[in-house]
Amino acid sequence: MGLVRMCARCGCLYTTDTEVCMNCRTKDEADVIKLKGFLEEAFLEGETTRQDVLNSTGINAKNLDRFMGYNEFAGIKFGAPAEEKIIKAKK
Ligand SMILES: [Zn+2]
Prior knowledge:
This protein has 91 residues and is mainly alpha-helical.
């Protein structure tokens, strides 16, 4: 018997050992696949910001931050936000 936990994605209560409930597990898997695919291509082209990822994948910011804590994404660092780049370029 597992502990009662709150789903990191929809907030419902469930009792498994995973981070999200059964309903959200498939959604999480689809998002992670999308994220991996995007990151592989994006980093070949250079710097990618967190906002780029959010815009291009449509992944919820809260979920993105959760995925980025996973081991498989360890070591990935996003570039500075676009606003900061513009400020730096003007100096
Ligand atoms: Zn859920």
